[in-house]
Amino acid sequence: MESYWGRIPEAQRVSSLRLPWQDLWSKTTRYLSKDDMKEIGEAFVFAANAHGEQRRYSGDPYVVHTVSVAAILSGMEIDMETIVAALLHDVLEDTSVTADVLQEKFGPGVLTLVDGVTKLGKLPFKTVEDYQAENLRKMFVVMAKDIRVVLIKLADRLHNMRTISSHRREKQLSIAHETLEIYAPLAHRLGIYQLKRELEDLSFRIIDPEMYYDIKRRVRKKLPEREMIIKEAMDILSQKMHEQDIEVSISGRPKHFYSIYEKMRRKNISLDQLYDLLALRVIVKTVGECYQVLGIVHALWKPIPGQFDDYIANPKSNLYQSLHTTVVGPAGEPLEVQIRTWEMHFLAEYGIAAHWNYKEGGKRVSNLDKGLTWIRKALEAAPDSQEDGESGGSLFLDNLKTDVLSTEVFVFTPKGNVISVPKGSTPIDFAYAIHTEIGHKCVGAMINGRIAPMDQELQNGDIVRILTSPQGKPSRDWLKIAKSSRTRSKIKSWFRLQDRQERDEKLKRGREILEREAAKRYPGVINPLEVISAQMNHIAREMGYLSLEELIVSVGIGTHTAASVLGRVNADASKLTAEPIPAQSAPQRKEADSEIVVEGAQGVLVSLAQCCRPVPGDPIIGCVTQSRGITVHRIDCANLHKTDPAKKVTVAWGKPKDTRYTARIKVEGIDKSSLFGEIVQNITGMDGNIVGIRANVVNNSRTRVIVEVQVKDIEHLYRIIAKLNTISGIIEITRG
Questions:
Q1: Does the pTM exceed 0.70?
Q2: Residues annotated as catalytic (active site), given as ranges
Q3: Is the pLDDT at 526 greater than 70, yes or no?
Q4: Are 624 and 600 in contact (CB under 8 A)?
Q5: What's the rounded Cα separation, in Å, for the pair 240 and 245?
Q6: Distances (CA, A) of 103 to 100, 142, 434, 587
Q7: Which of 166-170, 200-204, 544-548 has the lowest mean pLDDT?
């Protein structure tokens, strides 16, 4: 220990650091190996040098804080890696040390832990609530990966609370409220009661110092009297244990001040009416002895009805196990007795941290998943802020407080299975906790054999029977009754599904009504609604709907009649009775992305005319057809003179596609045996793909070759034609 002390900067070798360093060293030496101690010593020196001249508000070297955090964790006999990470937990955030350096020197495991703690402290927040919510969300995500990060964070908060006097009063209050609201319940849920008690008392002292010191003074005044009663009870019980040859450890358990205050407030009683300021704790070797001791206690003193909890048969979700009973003690006053094994006691004190206990190795890992179940539930219950239209962070915090940080109650199914639900839950929560479908089909509930209202709050030990019906379905009022966010989420999901199905039905109904009306108005027209869909889209926008579907739905629910909607089509009959433009079946493309741009219209069916086969670069014009949308012709196409001018629309080439277009060319030349071959050779030589070719002799002296060739654009085609014109005997080349 001294060798490492001598390696830290001389300015840091002060008594305020030596004390926590000695504390850490003495605790870890008891359960860690020499190699582990070497790592801890190196981490101590590294942290001291990294933090250098940094000081805390109290004026102490900064490393006092990290060593103190490590010392708190060493009290739980936690593994070396976590202790090292605690010593280094601020180096990434507050010093120039990089992650690479940290990993190289202490390994990836330590880096992961330090990085996790650092990230929790670096999140930007707008409000205190956002800070708490986002911090917690991150914390829970990290917990799901490695819960040791949270153990370090809790120890970090505990030391900050112990040294909070250096801050201004406002800052003290802010930290204390956050600790009492978030960190203490978190420690409770992790089963680390040792940390929880101290965090609560330290926060209580800051938030309400007058009440804190008043309770402290009055408890101390009453203690001698209570201690006499407890001692008498301990003597009686010890004698009985000795007679039964049961090896036990019996001690008095003082309540911490905040729990006394909470009980006074909750039950609206005075301190003088509190009889369990001290309680008995009996620790034995086996579970069987726990129940044996319980029988002895109940034989000695009369148990108070309703004051017995069997957390051995029904462990809390944080794995806490013990027997709790309250009896009428030797002085005729209530006396609480807790009975547990040594293993249960260790888990009760250190909770989830016990899984990283050095001596236990991996023995308890099999239970770890059970202990982390509630963490996963919290993550699953994180709401979708977009769907709920509220701040996701705030909702997450609310849900966390409701589902995770609140206490829970245990209720029974008629078959005796235990179901854990958040405190304040109703039969609705219970039904969904059993199965989602049971929740959906719930029509009533019986609590302890009697029909109960659906908003009745469940109590510990209630036997609940859910009454279901095939016709049962959720009610929106359940959202006000349900306590659990998971229940509300399932109810909302059901309604979202119902809304989608109802909308599809309205859409189908609206379309059928419109189709019938359109068939009457346009007899002989096949699929009249489809034919006028372009106009319908325009009408939908005019009527303030976002899409044609929305307009059709409004017809389906009766907001508009089919006649009133189709009447608007008639009002624009000149365009309608010309040749309607069928909507393109494929998804609409943006104009800029279209191969052909039609002036004043988007999403219409467009095709290239086969008669003139235009290619990009050709001047073109569109013609509205009855069933093929708009056909695009070259502007010099011979067929255009037959077309009604009213059907012509302006079109232009849009974004070129990475494809080829088929053009038809007609080549006439002097009839010679080699002409056909020369034409083919020149076209392919110019990167033209021939997809069709035929030749014949005209007037016994000329050869006419009609070639269908795929080209990139008009320039490509012109280059091919120019090349063909170099062939000897070519008379004329024209577009077909």
A1: no
A2: 93-94
A3: yes
A4: no
A5: 9
A6: 5, 19, 46, 52
A7: 544-548
